[in-house]
Amino acid sequence: MGPFRAFPGVKALATISALLLAASAASAQPAIQPALPRADVQAAVGWQNLRSDPAGTSNNWVNSIAFADAAAGWYWTEHLRTQVDVGIGSTGKTYRTVEISSGSRPVYRFVRTDVRPATFAISQQYQFFHNAIFHPHVGGGVLVRSERLHDDYVDYDFVTPGTPDPGHTEDRTRTRVAALADVGFKAYMSERAFFSSDARFTIRKSVDGVLFRFGFGIDF
Questions:
Q1: Residue 122 and residue 54: Cα distance in Å, rounded?
Q2: Structural fold of domain 35-219
Q3: Residue ranges per domain, the chain?
Q4: Which of 13, 83, 137, 152 could form a cystine bridge with 127, CB 3.0-4.6 A?
Q5: For the chain, how far is it from start to end, CA to CA, in angstroms?
Q6: Is the CB of residue 135 less than 8 Å from the CB of residue 126?
């Protein structure tokens, strides 16, 4: 008679002990973390405000420009992300009055300007938190803005009023380079899809542009 035949419960206890040891070893291994994204793409719409040419009043902002853009980002680390984006805006309008000389009499020029911007920007962002649903970020970079402008001019003499000058028009373009700063967040709706929103400020001598955006994207 073998030694285990005298104690039939010993074999069962040995089997249970082996299973418990295996389970303990497996639980001691680190949990598998989901892969962090390496890149993302997103599309957004927003509301743009731009500083225009000097006006006769303190308000020389062009407001209510609808804006749409697309962006791609690359993660160098979990927190450092580079973004490149391109965008285009609708036509905004601004009005200004300029005094011009005509001999000894003041003549005023009324100018209506239509502005349509297009932008290219590259920025470096720092993204907070680890593997979370909500990731705020701050960033800074450089923006190049191309503006297509259409001016309507009308001159008027208030001293001897009469029929105003029939006026003339002018089409022009200009390109401006500005520093940018932004603050925003990504909020995940699934493992890869997210909602995004941010506020971007462009700065030359002072703040010359403000953009609020919201959109959707996906990680890769």
A1: 28
A2: Porin (2.40.160)
A3: 35-219
A4: 137
A5: 65
A6: no
Residue in the block written with tokens 């303190």: 58
Measuring CA to CA, which residue among 178, 48, 159, 173 is closest to residue 105?
A: 159
User: Is the pTM of the predicted complex or chain greater than 0.85?
Assistant: no
**AA identity, residue 11:** K
pLDDT in tens, 136-162: 999 999 999 999 999 999 887 766 666
> Which runs of E-coded beta strand occur in 76-192?
80-89, 92-102, 105-127, 134-156, 168-188
- The model's pLDDT over 47-68, given as tens digits with 9 standing for 90+, comes to 999 988 776 566 788 988 999 9
**CA–CA gap between residue 77 and residue 217 (Å, rounded):** 19
Q: How far, in Å, are 3, 73, 178, 211 from residue 45 at the CA level?
A: 80, 17, 21, 10
